[in-house]
Design a protein that fits this description.
The protein is an alpha/beta fold and 398 residues long. Helix content is 37%, strand content 16%. It has a six-stranded mixed β-sheet, with helices on both faces. Strands 8-7-6-11-12 form a five-stranded mixed β-sheet, with helices on both faces. A two-stranded antiparallel sheet has the order 9-10. It is globular and about 55 Å long. The two termini are 33 Å apart.
């Protein structure tokens, strides 16, 4: 990551990046190889303490006004809390501008490139654009689906993106930088469900925020010294010692919830291995051979020790029994926790993205927004569904 303001090019310094996830926001400047700061997307006092380990020293979230009755806008939620989202957005952009104040005198000179989930409805996308342009007053805006960025950060153009984060598991087909119609499958399963399962089974007798912190530390254990006891240091100064047997219980529960058909959350849902297989099989037969060898994982829940090997093991009986000649491979980059952010950082740094002659082929500028309106601007500049006559796909207007 760029360590000082002088390392940024003026064009990069004006590109502010926001990876707005369900649980956390990852923010930075174009060209950064990891986020400047990662912090909780909740605006409640309890979450501020529970997510203390997320906070970057350069971002003092105590400066932000907290409303104990509401949470920030998240485009995976059904209800918009616009005042909270505006506060969080202004706080984030103000802090980023402080890192590049020599190049950007105010946030009105910045261009925001934001990630978004595939399932974001058009009404929420239009409202976020309206907040960016009219309330915050940024110079430009662009939104990119996270599956495309996760695949892009791995250096691939054709792949299946498997995202397993805080609350959602999603598989998405990416073909030459676009998402073919029908190549998306989503289920409500993620790190939140693991934490709840651990608490219900009595493995973690702590409040939710502390239980989630312990879960991450245990399941991401490096695997060395498994015969020894594990000690987890909590942000409040306490330490918890776990025996090897306890660690095995956590791993078994995690495996059962993610990979077994009968789980603690629902007995009717598909396993993640079934999701991956059926998503690929829903695409055109001509591109399946390009997708199976490129099953790209991203999201914090995929960081659990042994997750790629377990997923490969579960896919083997499904794929090999029906397609013995097909080669498949699970790709789990070590930086997959920040894959969407790395992808958007690379994208925002490209001169082809910004335009060789400042034509801004992908960026929604203020004048373009006022001329075309929010819906037309998003459809013309931020659409990643493409009609393809060869595969007889259907046009989707986002």
């Amino acid at each position: 990551m760029s360590s000082s303001e002088d390392e940024y090019e003026p064009e990069d310094a004006r590109m502010f990046l926001i990876d707005s996830g369900t649980k956390t926001w990852k923010v930075g400047i174009a060209g950064d190889d990891c986020p400047t700061a990662v912090f909780s997307a909740s605006l409640t006092p309890d979450s501020r303490h529970e997510d203390q380990d997320y906070l970057s020293p350069s971002f003092d979230v105590a400066d932000l006004h907290y409303d104990p009755e509401r949470v920030s806008l998240n485009h995976r939620e059904k209800v918009l809390y616009e005042d909270d989202f505006r506060n969080l957005l202004l706080f984030t952009l103000g802090k980023l501008r402080g890192r590049v104040h020599r190049h950007v005198s105010s946030i009105h000179e910045a261009t925001v490139v934001q990630t978004e989930p595939v399932a974001t409805c058009g009404r929420i996308r239009r409202r976020i654009l309206e907040l960016m342009m009219e309330d915050v007053g940024v110079e430009g805006y662009h939104a990119v689906p996270t599956p495309i960025l996760a695949v892009y950060s791995s250096g691939r153009g054709c792949a299946l993106s498997f995202e397993l984060g805080h609350s959602v598991a999603q598989t998405t087909i990416i073909y030459e930088g676009y998402m073919p119609d029908g190549g998306v499958m989503t289920t409500r399963l993620g790190g939140h469900d693991l934490t709840q399962c651990f608490m219900e089974e009595g493995l973690l007798n702590e409040r939710y925020g502390v239980a989630e912190y312990i879960k991450r530390k245990i399941l991401r254990f490096d695997g060395e010294g498994e015969d020894n006891q594990r000690t987890v240091d909590l942000p409040d100064g306490r330490s918890i010692t776990l025996s090897p047997l306890s660690g095995q219980a956590y791993s078994t529960t995690c495996s059962n919830l993610l990979f077994d058909q009968v789980s603690a959350t629902s007995s009717s849902r598909r396993t993640i291995s079934d999701m991956i297989y059926h998503t690929v099989m829903q695409t055109n037969i001509h591109i399946r051979k390009d997708i199976f060898p490129n099953l790209v994982c991203s999201g914090g829940t995929t960081l659990h020790q042994g997750f790629p090997d377990k997923l490969t093991e579960c896919l083997k009986p499904i794929i090999s029994s029906k397609h013995p000649n097909i080669r498949y491979k699970v790709i789990a980059p070590p930086e997959r926790l920040y894959s969407p952010f790395i992808g958007v950082s690379i994208l925002a740094s490209l001169s082809t993205f910004r335009g060789w002659d400042n034509s801004d082929p992908f960026i929604i500028k203020k004048a373009f927004y006022e001329e075309e309106g929010g819906e037309r601007a998003l459809n013309r500049k931020c659409t990643y569904y493409q009609f393809d006559e060869q595969f007889n796909k259907t046009v989707l207007d986002i």
